[in-house]
Amino acid sequence: MKISKQFPVNALRVFEAVARHLSFTKAGEELGLTQTAVSYQIKLLEDLLGESLFLRRPRRITLTDAGARLAPKVSEAFELLSAAISDMRSTSEGTLTINATATFASHWLARHLGIFQLDNPRIAVRLETTQEIIDFNKTEADVAIRVGQGQWPGLRAHFLMRNHFTPMLSPKLAESIGGVREPLDLLKLRIIDPGDRWWRIWFTAAGYPDAELDLYPRSKMGAQALEAAAAVAGHGVAILRPEFYQDDVAMGRLIQPFELTCEDGSHYWLVYPEARRHAAKIRAFRAFLTKTLPSFEERAPLE
């Protein structure tokens, strides 16, 4: 099909929004259109293509097979256009906005971002932290650091580092019970967030699948960095990624009483929209990770 002045760009934009929300009403609210206008644009596109794109059912709609094939391609096309316009508007390489968990941000990124900025003086860096999985369509973030299995639809994912865990506590807290010599000694102390499934995984691997974690009062701090701070203060035993806290161990603020570490299949990944993979600032960030993080995989999985 030859793109001309009659090419239905508006109709495709409306289609993309409706396909994403599976709602004419929500798409209209996002685009500032009435439901009648949304319906008209979808009908215009369907007539042009000669295909029904949505199945209209009472109180809900679903994509037809044709609509399901078209939706991801249209979404990527608009993302590419947005990226191209963004790059053209910038007089320099702009600002790289990184979204990361508080723990990764404070214990790895903050210590290494200076290297990135020295290598890329024309790129400003803005670091934001959240424990929630962000929607790239609703945020200014260019890249994100996520914990998971590396599979998110529409996103390119690069492996950063394995995520394993083990109990850690302050030496003074361990001394308060005459030392921690076996796993069950930990249960003599306050367990920070006993509802965290990491605890059950670790005790099971240590040979105590029936450890009575349910007897402890529930507490949830929302970030590993906060749990580590509580452990340093002597307020309990936290289950942490030991590599992030080697400085605390070296300075005598924390100890790792057991060599046993465990994993739950979720690791750290760099992610960003597939359509943004060629953006200069994202390429620069990947090069920085290749330089500073030996475990980083420049090639995306299945690439």
CATH topology of the largest domain: D-Maltodextrin-Binding Protein, domain 2
Fraction of residues in H or I helices: 25-40%
Low-confidence stretches: none
Instruction: Output mean pLDDT.
Output: 88
Structural class: alpha+beta
Summarize the main sheet.
5 strands, mixed
The N- and C-terminal alpha carbons lie at a distance of 29 Å
Keywords: DNA-binding, Transcription, Transcription regulation
Domain HTH lysR-type: 7-64
Family: Belongs to the LysR transcriptional regulatory family.
InterPro entries: LysR-type_TF_proteobact-type, LysR_HTH_N, LysR_subst-bd, WH-like_DNA-bd_sf, WH_DNA-bd_sf
Structural notes for this entry:
This protein is of the alpha+beta class and 303 residues long. The protein has 3 domains: 9-88, Arc Repressor Mutant, subunit A (Orthogonal Bundle); 93-158 and 265-292, Periplasmic binding protein-like II (D-Maltodextrin-Binding Protein, domain 2), CATH 3.40.190.10; 164-263, D-Maltodextrin-Binding Protein, domain 2 (3-Layer(aba) Sandwich). It is built from 10 helices and 10 strands. It has a 5-stranded mixed β-sheet, covered by helices on one side. Strands 8-7-9 form a 3-stranded antiparallel β-sheet. The protein is elongated, with a radius of gyration of 25 Å. The two termini are 29 Å apart. Belongs to the LysR transcriptional regulatory family. Keywords: DNA-binding, Transcription, Transcription regulation. It comes from Rhizobium oryzicola. Residues 7-64 form the HTH lysR-type domain.
